[in-house]
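Batch job 17 of 40 flagged for manual review because the log was empty.
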Amino acid sequence: MNRKWYKGDTHLHTVNSDGDLTLGQLVEKGKNKGLDFMIITDHNYNTVDESYYDGDMLVIQGQEITDEMAHINVWGVKVPEDPPYVLNDAEDYKKLVKKCKDAGGIISANHPFCSMCGFQISLDNFKFDCVEVWNTVQHSDNMKNRDWWVDKLLKGEKIAAVGGSDYHRDVAKLPILAMPTTYVHAKSNTEKDILEAIKEGRCVVTNSPSSSMINLSYGNCGIGDTGSLADGHKLRVAVTNMMIGHTLKIYNNDKVIFETKANKNAKLYMTAVDVKEAGFVRAEITYKFPAGIKKIYKLVEKKFLDCKDNFIPDFIWAFTNPIWIEE
């Protein structure tokens, strides 16, 4: 089955919860960004009763189940209970998540290590389809999300990773809609195929609709597929819009098997590397702030995001989900 890459934003809010834009205004903004799909996830409210198209752009129904202990996105179905939800403990969350999954919903754990509104209960209590590794403009808490996700991958857990702008409004004139953007390798731009591909981990997350994109292939296998180590294929890597100073890293499980820092901008960068171990391969692009910028950024994080760390790590500009490798 032929697949195409579709770019979208998985986490968006309107005036129906605490956003500034109406549904129509938000959809128009997404179309102007060049998105192929958007998922509307108002807090404890179904703004979209049934997925639809506005021109060529798909608008998918969703909801962010929101309470003090956790924020969880439900995509593709209406939550089978009416708010206000009773969410006093982990068991209450677990029961509601199960009802959503039984109804056919795709479930995402949102910004689990966010300093402001992260998970106050163990993520191990739930069966999520994916985790929102990258929430809104890049910041330090997202690296904690990334580390948790990678640890799950290393334990053999096939949980997909996505990004979502968590858009409520532009901040300080920064147009943060689709920052980040989730690319989905799907059979078609329909609700069923987009959500199925997300669940299968056929995703790449990047800074914006126009920033660097990473594609991986191992023989006939693409991101989200499973290949065989015995086949002896090289992992082929293609990066578009690689930026000067950014570093591309290729991982085979926890080992960096290839690394290069761009000394110039490149519309297309390609390489091929050997895969030595069964498990998985994945890729990411990282960047560093100069020391002076780090100090300023830390102040911004504390003011707007309540990030409590005293340092700024290397940030991710783009990352892939894995290709899984069997013996």
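Reviewer: the log was empty due to a logging misconfiguration, but the result itself is present. DSSP finds five helices and 21 strands in the chain. Unflagging and moving on to job 18.
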